[in-house]
Write a structure and sequence with these properties.
The chain is an all-beta fold. Helix content is 1%, strand content 62%. The chain is built from one helix and 14 strands. The strands form two sheets. Strands 1-3-4-5-6-7-8-9-10-12-13-14 form a twelve-stranded antiparallel beta barrel.
Length: 269
């Protein structure tokens, strides 16, 4: 169906731009994605040494999503980063696999999937408070549930919730959520809004900025809200812009804003 070929795009979140929507592409209808995300924060909540610290950052990500079957896909992602502490360079690489269990586009009440991803992070970047990971190797189990409403073979509205639980090779687990809704008033344009949160479970409630070594043992917390628009170019992919601002932070970068531009183009194997 036409709307199935347009069923999702890359949304940059706190941790990555790995695909999270619970709708899958047909087998071997691959998706190449690119993301540029200029962002900044003006403080580290509960941080010291120094008490106030800010960073201007740029993230650049490229990804490749390959649907293996109608219900299984794999995705790889490379992330480069520039921050006030480090010049532009390698930040992390990730691999994700997902399986879909329910598909509302095929008659089920909702769409439902589960996945596993692993992210390998630069040891140098872990010493930067702008890098939101726990250790060199980070593992996460994810699940997403969503519902789509369509008309004349194209979606008019959809929403989904993603939950993730993770653990690294060192430190304490984390949990996160991503809630997103989207409406499509025109064939070529949609608008979305989202809420996301990321919570560490470590025992430490303060961040030593100058001697930082990752968020592995920190009880970090943040909640962001945002929204944006997507332009659909049929066979030529999708262009998206999303803005996010931080509502709440604890032992984590605060006064944060993000201006994310992403482009996804399909191709077949």
């Amino acid at each position: 169906m036409k709307y199935k070929a347009l069923c999702f795009f890359l949304v940059s979140n706190t941790l990555s731009a790995l695909t999270e929507m619970p709708w899958f592409y047909p087998p071997f209808e691959c998706q190449f994605g690119a993301v540029v995300d200029p962002n900044f924060f003006r403080d580290v909540k509960d941080g010291f040494n120094p008490v106030r610290y800010h960073s201007n950052n740029v993230l650049a990500e490229v990804s490749l999503l390959v649907p293996i079957t109608e219900a299984i896909d794999i995705e790889t992602e490379l992330t480069l980063q520039k921050s006030s502490k480090y010049s532009f360079g390698f930040e992390s690489v990730a691999l994700q696999g997902r399986m879909q269990f329910l598909d509302d586009l095929s008659g089920d009440p909702v769409s439902l999937d589960a996945g596993l991803n692993v992210r390998i992070v630069s040891g140098q970047r872990l010493r930067d408070v702008a890098t939101p990971y726990h250790n060199l190797a980070n593992f996460e189990l994810t699940g997403a549930v969503g519902k789509e409403w369509s008309s004349k073979g194209d979606f008019v509205a959809r929403s989904y919730l993603t939950l993730g639980v993770g653990e690294a090779i060192r430190g304490y687990p984390w949990v996160r959520f991503f809630l997103r809704g989207e409406v499509k008033p025109l064939t070529v344009l949609s608008f979305n809004g989202f809420l996301r949160g990321y919570f560490g479970t470590g025992p430490e409630n303060h961040v030593n900025v100058s001697k930082f070594s990752s968020y592995a043992f920190i009880q970090h917390q943040n909640i962001d809200v945002g929204g944006g628009a997507t332009w659909f170019f049929r066979l030529y992919g999708e262009l998206s812009f999303n803005y996010a601002i931080r509502l709440f932070a604890h032992a984590f970068p605060d006064k944060y804003q993000s201006f994310c531009l992403s482009y996804t183009i399909p191709f077949s194997l």
